[in-house]
Write a structure and sequence with these properties.
By secondary structure, the protein is mainly α. The chain has helices at about 5-25, 30-35, 40-55, 55-70, 75-90, 90-95, 110-115, 115-150, 155-205, 205-210, 225-235, 240-245, 245-255, 255-290, 310-320, 325-360, 365-390, 395-420, 425-445, 455-465, 480-490, 510-530, and strands at about 495, 500-505. A two-stranded antiparallel ribbon has the order 1-2.
């Protein structure tokens, strides 16, 4: 990477930080900091929604999916399209159209309205923890991008630099800075990839002839995917559009219901097919390039030696012309930054408004509340950075964070909006039981990373064959490393060593499926036993639990 690209990259990042400082000087209260003064238009909000939801994390993660499974990986963001449009139809009119919510800043405040302060406090904690994990995934994505683009930069150094930039930018700017920079950087990123990145990469790997000579036919098909994978993605991703704090902030930031719905329809189209196919195609091209030896100059002589999620940035580094490389990498980093800062803001908003605000029981002064928000953002950012240093896979961390929030929050929010018998007792029980089932199963589920050495994988298989005699591991041994890891993870093996209990989840479904089922049953039963009281207009539910 020459001095021209480095200069463009540095200048771009300085410009982004300047935007944060500009709005730092103009944020007068938490209305400005968290919901942009509630006057944002649909184009800015729509691009910000897709930038936050897809972000650099999903962009890097989609590249990894394209590398492993081909264009079928695009189905992940089809669930994002469904989620966005379902939320536009069923959620936004209930939220933006309710005058009781016109001064709200966070998602758990809606729980307070329907269920009371104790439920809102728990919802705030769940949302804050989930978004701290999601922030970690974005920092890891940025570090992998840097590690792939700048081979001399190790992963931990890249993580520290990415974390410092993200936290400083977010602490300063607030939501307006996020939304305006989202619009600009996503226009640059999409234009650069559509008109330059994808065509150049396609030609660099030898076009369709070069691709067909390397990959299996299934990688060029949309059917190279199991129904379990689509169900697992759908149950994890679609509900996040109903419980995501970052999305509620943008609903609140819109002028009216019409503006918000238009923004959500726009975001859905950008997710699928635009961003979905761009991400997986670049990942597929990276797989071909690795197998052709394009990355041999940095010590990668075959595709199995490469972390699938670093393939995309390595491809961009090798094929982009001087000048455009710096611009595209800067846009990617900014996309990651936009998601990281939005998640940081969501997590800090939950802590300040929904946790500390409930515990102190006294309103903060406007200036002191902004300072407290910035301090909490700094602390959460440092925590997220430490978590990012302990994991290896961006997509897995993102989906785990989603699962934690969805399992606890989805059923109660749907009940609050659409079932009159919903109660605080049902909501509290659903949040605890659903979240607990999902977390316990997730913690004890055996996961293999795509970056593991094959020898280490085969060594673990010998032990697993004893614990899980019902699984035929012998047929898997003929697969290449990536196929082997996918086959092993699809078994959904649970090993609870303290109880000496080992089993596979039914039908190859993820823990979140069973967490949501547990939450739904708990919610309905407890709400029928102890139903909630119908709210009079303008009133909030007392704490019934």
């Amino acid at each position: 990477m020459g001095w021209i690209d480095i200069s463009i990259f540095v200048l771009y990042m300085i410009a982004v930080l300047w935007v944060g400082y500009y709005f730092y000087l103009r944020n007068k209260n938490t209305e400005d900091y968290y919901v942009g003064g509630r006057k944002m238009g649909s184009m800015h909000v729509g691009l910000s929604v897709v930038a936050t939801d897809v972000g650099g994390g999903f962009s890097i993660g989609l590249g990894g999916l394209g590398f492993i499974m081909g264009i079928s990986g695009s189905w992940m963001l089809f669930t994002g399209l469904l989620g966005a449009w379902l939320a536009a139809v069923f959620l936004i009119p209930k939220v933006k159209g309710n005058p009781a919510f016109e001064n709200y800043l966070t998602f758990p405040q809606i729980f307070g309205h329907y269920y009371g302060p104790a439920v809102a406090l728990l919802a705030g904690l769940i949302s804050a923890i989930g978004y701290a994990g999601f922030t970690s995934s974005q920092l890891l994505a940025g570090a992998k991008l840097a590690n792939g683009a700048f081979p001399t930069v190790d992963l931990n150094t890249a993580l520290i630099v990415m974390g410092i930039v993200a936290v400083v930018y977010t602490v300063m700017g607030g939501l307006k800075a996020v939304i305006y920079t989202d619009t600009f950087q996503w226009m640059i990123l999409m234009a650069g990839l559509i008109f330059i990145g994808i065509p150049i990469s396609y030609l660099a790997v030898g076009g369709m002839e070069g691709i067909r000579s390397v990959v299996q036919p299934g990688h060029l098909s949309l059917t190279n995917i199991s129904w379990q994978t689509i169900v697992n993605w759908g149950i994890t991703i679609i509900p996040i559009w109903f419980v995501g704090m970052t999305l509620y902030q943008r609903i609140y930031a819109c002028r009216d219901v019409k503006t918000a719905r238009r923004a959500w329809y726009l975001a859905g189209i950008f997710e699928y097919p635009i961003m979905a196919f761009m991400g997986v195609l670049l990942g597929l091209f990276a797989r071909v390039a690795a197998d052709q030896g394009m990355f041999s100059g940095v010590g990668v002589t075959g595709m199995e030696e490469l972390d699938p999620e670093t393939g995309l940035p390595m491809l961009i580094r090798h094929v982009m012309p001087v000048g455009l490389l710096g611009l595209i990498l800067a846009a990617y980093f900014s996309a990651i930054l936009s998601t990281a800062d939005s998640c940081l803001m969501a997590s800090s908003g939950n802590i300040v408004t929904d946790v500390l605000g409930k515990l102190t029981r006294k309103p903060f002064m406007p200036k002191s509340e902004i300072r407290l928000s910035q301090l909490v953002t700094l602390i959460i950012g440092a925590t997220a950075l430490m978590l990012a240093m302990s994991v290896t896979n961006v997509i897995d961390l993102m989906l785990r964070s989603y699962s934690f929030m969805v399992a606890g929050l989805f059923v109660p929010v749907i009940g609050a909006l659409y079932w009159n018998k919903s109660s605080a007792a049902g909501a509290m029980t659903a949040m605890i039981s659903g979240g607990a089932v999902t977390m316990v199963l997730s913690i004890y589920m055996i996961d293999f990373g795509y970056g593991m050495e094959r020898e280490a994988i085969e060594s673990q298989i010998q032990m697993l064959s004893i614990l899980f005699p019902e699984i035929d591991f012998s047929e898997m041994m003929a697969l290449n490393k990536y196929e082997l890891v996918s086959a092993l993870n699809s078994q959904k093996m649970i090993s609870i060593q303290p109880l000496n209990t080992h089993f596979s989840l039914p039908l190859g479904l993820d823990p979140i499926v069973f967490g949501i089922l547990t939450a739904a049953i708990s919610f309905v039963v407890l709400s029928l036993i102890k139903p909630g009281k119908k709210l009079p207009p303008g009133k909030e539910q007392s704490d019934l639990f």
